[in-house]
C-alpha cells in the first residue's frame, strides 16, 4: 500500500491560494455575464436591439443569448443558433479565400485585375492590384452608391460577368492606392477572381476552404429560394412599427455581403483565425496590417480607448448592414476576447454602443447603460402636434430626465434625416438647428443643417453651414464637394421650351432603373425610378443641371438630329442611358 505524501504548511497555503484563484475565475465570468445580460436586455426593452449575442473571454464563451423575435409573424424567438444575414462581414471570408490562393501561388497581391479577368477593361484593370481591391483603395466606384441602385436594380438577379460589366467597370474615382473609399464593387471583383482562378463557384470554394475546415455547419451563401432552417426574417423599424425589409436578390451583394451565419459559428470562425488551420501566420499578418483609414483585408484594425484612463485596447473588427440586418464582430485578440452581435431589425446605430458597454464590462471599466431614444419620443410629438412642441419636450426632458434619455448628437441627427426623408423639410431644419445648439463644436451637425437648407432652396444658409462644418473638420470631403457645387456659377441659358418635347421620354440607366424626362408647363423635369421629380435647368440646348443635387445631364443626338441617349454626370461618373421610349 502506497503511503500519501505529506503536505507542508507552506505548501498547504499555496494550494489554498491556488484553489481560491481557480474558483474565483468562474465567479468573475458569471458576474460579467450577468452585467452583459442586464445591458443587452435593457437595449432590447427599449427596442434598440433584436437579435443574438455571443461574448467570449480567454477563448471561452461566457455569454450567448437570443433576444426578441426571429420571425415576428409567427412569434418565433431568436436563439444562439438563429441564422442571420451578415452583410459586409462576408468580406473577411472573401479576403481569406484570396490569401489562401496567394499562399498556393495562384494569385499575387500585386497582380492586376487584368491578369485574372480577361474581359475586364484594360485601361483600369491593368492598374488595379489585388491589394487595392482588398484594402478599398482601388478607385473603382461603389455600385451601391449609384443613384437609384437599390430602388431600380437590387431586386433583379444577375450573372457575375454581366453585373461586373454594368456596375463594377466604371471610370476610376481616383488613382489606385492614393485614397480610401469603401467599395462593394472591389469585393465583388475579388469573388469573380476567386471563381476564375479556381474554376469553381465562389460558394463552393468558401465551403471547401473555410466552412468545412472550421466546422461552421450553420454558415453559407444565402439563397432566397432555398429552405434554410432557423433563418431569421429581416425587418426595418419605422415610426409606425416594424415592417418587412425590402427584397434584395442575393446575387447583388455576392462576395461583398451574401453570407448568413450564427453567433456560435462566428465564434468558431474566431477560433479558426486564432489557429493555423485557415491561414498562415504570414497571411494573417497581411490581413491584420492597417492600410489607409485603418483598413486591413476584410477587417478594420484600430485601438479603442477604455475607461477614465483611456486604456488603449487593440481591436480587429468589421460590421455589416444589409436589408433588415445589422451585424458586427469585434475581436480583442490580445486577450482572446470576442463580441458578436447579429440584429434582424436594422438597428445598426445601437450596435457600437452595445459593443462599447460589453467591452468595458470585460475590462472591468465603468460603462454606460441603455437609454431611451429621444428621437423616437420627439418624432411622435412632432407628427401628432408640431415641431415647436417637440423642441419644448426636448428641453423639458433634458432638464428633468437627462439620465433616462439618450441626448447624443446622433439622436437628433437621425430624427432630422427622418423628417427630411418624409419631406418635412422645415421641421428637419429646426431639429438640425437644435442639434447645432447642443453640439456647437461638432462638424457633422453643421453638415446636416447645410443639407437641409440646400434641400429647402436656401443656398446662402447652406453655404454658411457647410463652411462652418469644413472649418471644424477640414477632412470633411462631403462638405468640400457640396461647397464646390453650391459656389460654382452655373448660368441658366435661355432655351426655347418647345425643344423640351424632343427630350421627353424614358432613358434606361440600368435594368429597371429608368430616368423619365417630361416637358411640363415650359419646364423640363426628370424622375428616376424610386426618386422624386426634379427640374432640369438648361446651360445650353443639350446640357442641363439640377439644383438640389450635384448632377448634370447631357442629351445626345444622332446625325438626323434625333435624341438617342442622355449622359448623367454625377459623383465623378458619366453614366449613359439609352432612350427606350
What does this molecule look like?
With 581 residues, the protein is of the alpha+beta class. Helices cover 41% and strands 21% of the residues. The protein has an eight-stranded antiparallel β-barrel with strand order 16-17-18-19-20-21-22-23. Mean pLDDT is 90; it is low at 1-26.
Main β-sheet description: 8 strands, antiparallel, barrel
* Average pLDDT metric: 90
State the oligomer: single chain
Strand order of the largest sheet: 16-17-18-19-20-21-22-23
Terminus-to-terminus distance = 101 Å
Please indicate the percent range of residues in DSSP E strands (runs of 2 or more). 15-25%
C-alpha Rg (nearest Å): 27 Å
Low-pLDDT stretches are 1-26
User: Judging from the principal axes of the Cα atoms, what is the shape?
Assistant: globular
Range of helix content: 40-55%
Number of beta-strand segments: 23
Backbone structural class? alpha+beta
Number of alpha- plus pi-helical segments: 21
Brief characterization of the structure:
41% of the residues lie in helices and 21% in strands. With 581 residues, it is an alpha+beta fold. A hairpin with a 4-residue loop joins strand 19 (534-538) and strand 20 (543-545).
Key attributes of the depicted protein:
581 residues, 6-stranded antiparallel sheet, 21% strand, globular, disordered N terminus
Show the helix and strand layout.
Elements (H helix, E strand, L loop, with lengths): L8 H37 L5 E7 L2 E8 L1 E3 L4 E2 L6 E2 L4 H14 L9 H4 L5 H4 L4 H5 L14 H4 L7 H8 L16 H15 L3 H13 L5 E2 L13 E4 L2 E4 L9 H4 L1 E3 L1 H12 L6 H7 L12 E7 L4 E12 L2 E8 L4 E7 L4 H15 L9 E2 H11 L2 H14 L4 E2 L2 H13 L3 H14 L4 H14 L2 H14 L4 H11 L12 H4 L1 E6 L2 E8 L2 E6 L5 E5 L4 E3 L5 E7 L5 E8 L2 E7 L2
Parallel strand pairs: 14-15
Antiparallel strand pairs: 1-2, 1-13, 3-4, 5-9, 6-9, 7-8, 10-11, 11-12, 12-13, 16-17, 16-23, 17-18, 18-19, 19-20, 20-21, 21-22, 22-23
Helix pairs in contact: 1-13, 2-8, 2-9, 7-8, 14-15, 14-16, 16-17, 17-18, 18-19, 19-20
Amino acid at each position: 500500500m502506497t503511503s500519501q505524501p505529506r503536505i507542508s504548511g507552506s505548501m498547504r497555503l499555496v494550494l489554498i491560494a491556488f484553489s481560491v484563484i481557480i474558483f474565483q475565475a468562474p465567479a468573475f465570468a458569471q458576474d460579467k455575464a450577468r452585467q452583459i445580460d442586464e445591458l443587452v436586455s435593457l437595449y432590447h426593452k427599449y427596442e434598440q436591439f433584436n437579435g443574438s449575442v455571443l461574448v467570449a473571454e480567454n477563448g471561452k464563451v461566457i455569454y450567448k443569448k437570443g433576444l426578441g423575435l426571429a420571425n415576428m409573424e409567427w412569434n418565433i424567438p431568436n436563439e444562439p443558433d438563429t441564422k442571420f444575414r451578415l452583410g459586409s462581414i462576408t468580406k473577411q471570408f472573401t479576403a481569406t479565400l484570396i490569401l489562401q490562393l496567394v499562399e498556393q501561388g495562384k494569385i499575387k497581391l500585386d497582380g492586376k485585375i487584368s491578369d485574372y479577368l480577361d474581359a475586364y477593361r484594360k485601361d483600369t484593370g491593368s492598374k488595379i492590384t489585388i491589394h487595392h481591391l482588398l484594402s478599398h483603395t482601388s478607385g473603382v466606384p461603389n455600385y451601391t452608391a449609384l443613384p437609384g441602385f437599390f430602388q431600380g436594380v437590387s431586386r433583379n438577379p444577375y450573372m457575375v460577368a454581366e453585373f461586373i460589366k454594368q456596375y463594377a467597370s466604371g471610370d476610376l474615382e481616383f488613382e489606385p492606392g492614393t485614397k480610401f473609399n469603401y467599395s462593394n464593387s472591389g469585393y465583388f471583383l475579388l469573388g469573380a477572381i476567386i471563381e476564375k482562378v479556381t474554376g469553381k463557384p465562389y460558394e463552393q470554394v468558401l465551403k471547401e476552404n473555410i466552412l468545412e475546415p472550421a466546422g461552421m455547419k450553420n454558415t453559407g451563401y444565402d439563397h432566397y429560394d432555398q429552405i434554410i432552417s432557423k433563418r431569421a426574417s429581416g425587418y426595418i423599424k419605422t415610426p409606425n412599427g416594424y415592417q418587412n425589409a425590402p427584397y434584395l436578390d442575393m446575387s447583388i451583394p455576392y462576395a461583398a455581403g451574401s453570407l448568413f451565419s450564427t453567433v456560435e459559428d462566428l465564434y468558431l470562425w474566431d477560433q479558426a483565425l486564432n489557429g493555423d488551420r485557415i491561414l498562415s501566420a504570414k497571411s494573417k499578418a497581411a490581413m491584420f496590417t492597417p492600410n489607409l483609414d485603418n483598413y486591413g483585408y476584410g477587417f478594420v484594425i484600430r485601438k479603442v480607448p477604455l475607461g477614465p484612463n483611456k486604456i488603449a485596447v487593440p481591436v480587429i473588427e468589421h460590421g455589416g448592414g444589409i436589408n433588415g440586418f445589422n451585424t458586427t464582430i469585434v475581436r480583442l485578440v490580445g486577450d482572446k476576447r470576442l463580441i458578436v452581435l447579429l440584429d434582424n431589425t436594422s438597428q445598426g446605430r445601437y450596435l457600437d454602443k452595445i459593443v462599447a458597454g460589453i467591452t468595458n464590462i470585460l475590462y472591468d471599466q465603468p460603462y454606460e447603460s441603455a437609454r431611451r431614444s429621444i428621437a423616437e419620443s420627439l418624432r411622435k410629438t412632432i407628427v401628432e402636434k408640431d415641431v415647436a412642441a417637440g423642441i419644448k419636450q426636448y428641453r423639458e426632458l433634458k432638464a428633468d430626465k437627462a439620465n433616462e434619455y439618450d441626448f447624443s448628437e446622433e439622436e437628433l441627427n437621425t430624427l432630422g434625416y427622418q423628417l427630411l426623408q418624409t419631406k418635412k423639410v422645415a421641421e428637419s431644419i429646426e431639429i438640425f438647428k437644435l442639434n447645432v445648439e447642443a453640439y456647437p463644436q461638432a462638424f457633422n451637425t453643421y453638415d446636416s443643417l447645410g443639407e437641409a437648407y440646400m434641400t429647402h432652396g436656401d443656398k446662402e444658409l447652406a453655404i454658411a453651414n457647410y463652411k462652418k462644418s469644413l472649418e471644424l473638420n477640414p477632412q470633411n470631403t462631403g462638405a468640400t464637394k457640396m461647397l464646390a457645387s453650391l459656389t460654382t456659377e452655373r448660368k441658366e441659358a435661355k432655351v426655347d421650351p418647345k425643344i423640351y418635347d424632343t427630350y421627353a421620354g424614358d432613358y434606361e440607366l440600368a435594368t429597371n432603373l429608368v430616368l423619365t424626362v417630361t416637358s411640363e408647363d415650359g419646364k423640363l423635369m426628370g424622375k428616376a425610378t424610386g426618386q422624386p421629380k426634379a427640374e432640369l435647368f438648361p446651360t445650353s440646348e443639350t446640357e442641363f443641371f439640377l439644383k438640389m443635387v450635384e448632377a448634370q445631364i447631357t442629351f445626345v443626338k444622332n446625325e438626323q438630329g434625333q435624341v438617342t441617349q442622355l449622359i448623367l454626370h454625377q459623383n465623378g461618373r458619366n453614366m449613359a442611358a439609352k432612350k427606350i421610349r
